[in-house]
Amino acid sequence: CETCSKEEAKYRCPRCMKYSCSLLCVKKHKLALSCNGVRDKTAFVSVNEFTDLNLLSDYRFLEDVGRTADAAARHCIVHSPATKRLLYCLRNKARGCNIELKTLPVGFTKRRENSTTFNSMENKFYWHLKLVFPHCHAEYTLKGVPDDKTLADILKPYIDPVESDPVVCQRLKIYTASPQSDVRILMKIENRSRNSVRYNELDAGRSLLDNLKGKVIIEYPTLFVVLKTLKNDMVVLGQDGSEPAENSESESSSHSSVEEGEIRDSS
Question: Torsion angle, CA of 121/100/81/222, rounded to 10 degrees?
């Protein structure tokens, strides 16, 4: 068993291929690795290892995708006038805050995931937010994050050595063990070509709303938390010596791609 290292393994996780001896160890490994236990149907398989079983799996996966897309296209709610008005209102409110919020067509994963709302009584956004910790290969999704909350407060439950959850703290120990001054928060600049991916550095001491002003957001913000002392491949605009930071706005609107680009090596 790769969790307790005491008992003989009886089970193997279809997702991460970890061996476990009992239901308790299965639950522990899922919690520690944020593993859902579901086999990754899109995992890479080399030609030498490709079998008829993989071919059948791919065929069934494509059938499932076709059925899901057809069901989404037929769903009355996604095409209802109320849904369209809600999205229009959300984009309009964001525009009033100097944020260019773009929504994806029906069927896209980010469209289905997005839970961002705007409270008219409070005149405040409650954002759907994703935090990515590249050095630990960890991702966390937050819902209902108020726009007046500072980024430092948002990160406290994850990287603060005192306030963070013990399980999360153990997984992100490389962050909790580092000084707060080493933490950098980056956000990808959208609508750039895939061979020219750049990031904006955000201010941890300012609110989420202040950091999003002047930015292009596709569905919801995704924040990358990196450490200055560790090498990463994310090129921050204005710090690579080729493009000044103040050109980010004009360049962000010069491309139409909305797909996640590959991270370019800064070296």
Answer: -80
Largest distance between two CA atoms of the chain: 60
196, β-bridge pairs: none
In angstroms, the CA 92 to CA 190 distance is 19
Give the separation between CA 149 and CA 221, rounded to whole angstroms.
14
Residue spans of the domains in the chain: they are 11-62, 76-227
Enumerate the H helices of 213-252 as residue ranges: 248-252
Q: What is the secondary structure of 175-236 as a DSSP string?
A: HHTS-GGGEEEEEEPSS--TTS--EEEE-TTSBHHHHHTT-EEESS-EEEEEETTS---PPB
The residue count of the chain comes to 267
Tell which residue, 195, 161, 198, 166, has the closest CA to residue 180.
161
Cut 0.70: pTM above it: no
In tens, the pLDDT along 29-88 reads 888 888 888 888 888 888 888 888 888 888 988 998 888 877 766 665 555 677 778 888
* Domain formed by 76-227, architecture: Roll (3.10)
**Confidence tier at 258 by pLDDT (50, 70, 90):** very low
How deeply is 96 buried, as exposed, middle or buried, from its count of CB atoms within 10 A (0-12, 13-18, 19+)? exposed
Dihedral angle, C-alpha 60, 65, 67, 73, nearest 10 °:
-170
Whether 254 has a pLDDT exceeding 50, the answer reads no
